[in-house]
Amino acid sequence: MKFNLTRKQKKMLWRIIIAAVMLAVFMVLEHLFEMPWYLELILFLIPYIVSGYDVLRTAIINICHGQFFDEKFLMMIATVGAFGTGEYPEASAVMLFYQVGELFQSIAVGRSRKSIAKLMDIRPDSANVIRDGQQVTVSPDEVSVGETIVVNPGEKIPLDGVILEGDTSVNQAALTGESAPVNCGVSDTVISGTLNLTGVIKCRTTSTFGESTVSKILELVQNASDKKAKVENFISKFARWYTPCVVIGALLLAIIPPVITGITSWPVWSTWLNRACIFLVVSCPCALVVSVPLSFFGGIGGASKDGILIKGAGYMEVLSKVDTVVFDKTGTLTKGVFAVDDIHPNLIDKAELLDIAAACESYSSHPVAQSIVRAHEGHIAKDSISNVSEIAGKGVKADVNGITYYCGNGQLMDVCKADWHDCHLTGTIIHIARETSSGAEYLGHIVINDQIKEDSESAIKNLMSLGVKNLIMLTGDKEGVASAVASRLGLTGYFAELLPQDKVDKVEKLLNEASGKLAFVGDGINDAPVLMRADCGIAMGAMGSDAAIESADIVLMDDKPSKIADAIRISRKTMRIVWENIVFALGVKAIILILGALGIANMWLAVFGDVGVLIIAIINAMRCMRKIR
């Protein structure tokens, strides 16, 4: 494993190496030669001071400021006490191994920050903007909305925008965790912080730098550590009370037994003082104080590699307890893009029916109309279309090549008196009829649906495999459409034809019924009130959305619902590691404390109870940084 040490870490490592060599040499000399106690003391003080002078300095400064009870204070009085009882090598070794633990902790924290540091690298340094016909390079925060910027291959896209000229491939791995490039062309949206790979593009900016995706993501990551989990807050409070209690306990252990027995000779005092020092060393709470926050930080960093941004440890703790997931439909489980599902002709063939429908709908900007035009994929001769009129709430009437056609819903068919029939499939049904001398003639219908995302079905299965009992969809769509989507995905329930306020009411009711925590997954724009009301709000595909960043607790930086299961797995794994460290640290320390009080444990075992437990807990915490797949 390769470690890139900082200057401070390298300096500490050299101090540890020098102190360790001196300690080993002096221990050999001690065994080979008889030495007076004062010479022994001087010799072992040298590696003690070399390795731990900064600990002593910090402890003394804290004492001068009235801050007695911290781990450095414990180390100082424990090692000074050990020197006082004649255990010179042990005292020097305790300080040396304590510093080994501190170095290991520093390296581990650095590694856990690495993935987040990579995310911080998405901040662009400059932007090439066109002003007065000239290309000038400026800071991204000097570019206004609506200006034209040029992005060359290999450059980070500095601001959110829409491509005006050029085609390229964009690497979005820093935001989404996906390494596959995305092809973009004219009219496509590009996101700040992503990397332009192949072509020169010109873009019209759609946000200032302060409101861009990259700025909001950086702010989110920087503030993530401020929102602590309950267990993290408990450990912080525990440490504040624990350390004074340990000092008092060690003092009582050193004084009470000799006083009670009435044997007050120096050897007896020395024995109990030594046990008190062991008590102090093993009681140092650094294994808990370090490993618990490190576990959460590692979990947040590991999730960011997958394009899952968790705003804080508290949200991770909540997510680990989720047993109900409520989905918005459009943009979450479905693509939010209408497309032709099927064509059912009558009297004519499918191609001709689609030709007629596309011609009639070619002047409309409605999403359903546009889906028919996209499905046609051919040239529509606009000069052959005339007398286009929209019939509100029903559809369109138009003349194509001199023939009048009706294109719309069943109500429009009733208006033109066509002998139509409904479709056995669910979705938006567009009926087509043409006017003849004997009346309207029914030509068939086209089935249009919002397309389900490719991995929605597997996402639901994965959530079920994780023990999520309730998987519920909320939608404003009609009952038939909602039922078809819920049935296809295998959801446990759904509610259809809901207004935005209805969604809040449904979530309130589900919150009261849920045995565990409830997560709501939405697009982060229309669903902001529900995202805020749920125990855990998850925004799907919300790049660039103010509502998503501000309202959601977790932001998934792409449109894949499968990331929800990944987020839950990461949260549960992190919480499992946190509790493993807590139980292990307290268990080992309790055993050694009892053995120390009984005179069975020595100072070397106390060193393991402190530094050994710390290193093992840190190694365990670093598992949070690994990808779960």
Q: Can you tell me about this structure?
A:
With 629 residues, this protein is an alpha+beta fold. The chain has four domains: 1-121, no CATH class; 127-158 and 160-206, Calcium-transporting ATPase, cytoplasmic transduction domain A (Distorted Sandwich); 306-335 and 452-569, 3-Layer(aba) Sandwich (Rossmann fold); 336-451, Calcium-transporting ATPase, cytoplasmic domain N, CATH 3.40.1110. 51% of the residues lie in helices and 19% in strands. The chain contains 20 helices and 22 strands. A seven-stranded mixed beta sheet has the order 10-22-21-20-11-18-19, sandwiched between helices. Helix 7 (230-261) runs antiparallel to helix 8 (266-283), helix 9 (286-305) packs antiparallel against helix 19 and helix 11 (350-361) packs across helix 12. The longest helix is centred in the C-terminal third of the chain and has 36 residues, at 562-597. The chain is elongated, with a radius of gyration of 34 Å. The relative contact order is 0.11. The mean pLDDT is 81.
